[in-house]
Design a protein that fits this description.
- Two copies of one chain form a homodimer.
- Chain A is built from nine helices and no strands.
- Chain A has 198 residues and is mainly alpha-helical.
- Chain A has a domain of 132 residues: Tetracycline Repressor, domain 2, CATH 1.10.357.
- In chain A, helix 1 crosses helix 2 and helix 7 packs across helix 8.
- The longest helix of chain A is centred in the C-terminal third of the chain and has 27 residues.
- Chain A starts with 10 loop residues before the first helix and ends with a helix.
- At the A-B interface, helix 1, helix 7, helix 8 and helix 9 of A face helix 1, helix 7, helix 8 and helix 9 of B.
- Chain A binds a DNA duplex (30 and 30 nucleotides) through helix 3.
DNA sequence: TCCGTATGACCGATGAGTAATTTACCTGTA
DNA sequence: TACAGGTAAATTACTCATCGGTCATACGGA
């Protein structure tokens, strides 16, 4: 009557499956409200298996973070390398939409606002965010310099706003899932054109 | 040896004090991570007193929500009435900075991202946010119409971005507390001037 | 003596993390 | 080929801490 015993699923594959489901659960509920049992239940396995593979809830979160962090950094980095055009913001967004199209909750996990305010997770997330911010920084610095403003705090603020604006777009997208990545890109092009002087 | 018994603090005054401290605690940690015992400890009282006055954690949160919600709605509403100028965004921000200057965590409480996704708190917060959004909607609609875009979803998206942008500014401010409200207004004026076509 | 202010000590639920155990597969050997 | 036994996959059933919420009770002033 005991259901224990291998189900023929190798560790690597099981880990991938767990990470996939955990990203959805953590992205949707946030670190604070998500529970390991729920993730296990959704994966059709039991909690100790997750602890056996990832050690702790934070370990699992870190694994998810690496996944989505690498995905997003690569996407944005590739977009920067590809485009020499000055309309950098839109290219970045387009790349992000394509990347997130394959992993709906990627952005929510990296920018989870319910993360504990200190510790390994916080540090890792901060590092990934900083890498994204650095790539985006060139654009906002440009914008301010062209308007004749050079206060470094202004630049920091605009950068911060940019991160939140992208988060806003991503959240809006999860509330309108019928929109394709191309739809989103077109929409953002219109919004940006209404904002940016040209 | 029992410390029970009145300390000469009337209910109304005590409630104000508790709400003030709760706004800080809830704004800083968020609904999900804040605990009633901690709020009580910070207020120098015991947990049952809070339950006696507010009934539940959610009741306490609702009281805080009314406080900050009224504060913010009044501020933004007054700013709209006052200014006939087209530079509506900056006026709104200035009013917000002044209001939040007296209640640092007001915005964080209303826009707490750790709120449960359903229930009385969610509903109340959504109502207050909608009132703020409605007032701000005129501005963003204007912006898009002037650029020749009329898709209602575009308007919804820009509105959403605006809310998040303000949240970004408010969070940035809590990370730079030495800035005065006037500093913040000036800074945002520079950033807006770099963004908006004129 | 009543009523409003206030508390310490408890209850129950939830959720992170662990121990002990069971099952299935693979592999070397007679 | 059959079997012993090691190892990886998986579970059930716990512990422990935290936190929302309640109860009975203690003070102190009109």
């Amino acid at each position: 009557m005991n259901k224990a015993g291998t189900k023929g699923v190798a560790r690597a594959e099981r880990e991938r499956q767990i990470i996939g489901i955990a990203i959805e659960e953590l992205g949707e509920r946030g670190h604070a409200r998500a529970s390991v049992v729920d993730i296990a239940r959704r994966a059709g396995i039991s909690k100790p298996l997750i602890y056996g593979y990832f050690g702790s809830k934070d370990g699992l979160y870190l694994a998810c973070l690496s996944h989505v962090g690498d995905l997003l950094v690569e996407a944005v980095d590739a977009a920067r390398a590809r485009s020499g055009s000055p309309d950098h913001a839109l290219d970045t967004l387009a790349a992000l939409f394509d990347a997130v199209g394959t992993c709906r909750y990627a952005w929510s996990v990296l920018y989870d606002p319910t993360l504990p305010p200190a510790g390994a997770i916080h540090d890792a997330a901060t590092r990934y965010r900083a890498r994204l911010a650095d790539i985006g920084a060139a654009g906002s610095t440009d914008l301010l310099r062209r308007a004749g403003h050079h206060d470094p705090l202004d630049h920091a603020l605009l950068n911060h706003i940019w991160q939140y604006a992208v988060t806003a777009v991503m959240r809006w997208w999860t509330d309108h899932p019928e929109q394709s990545p191309a739809d989103m890109t077109a929409r953002c092009a219109r919004v940006l054109s209404a904002l940016t002087p040209n």
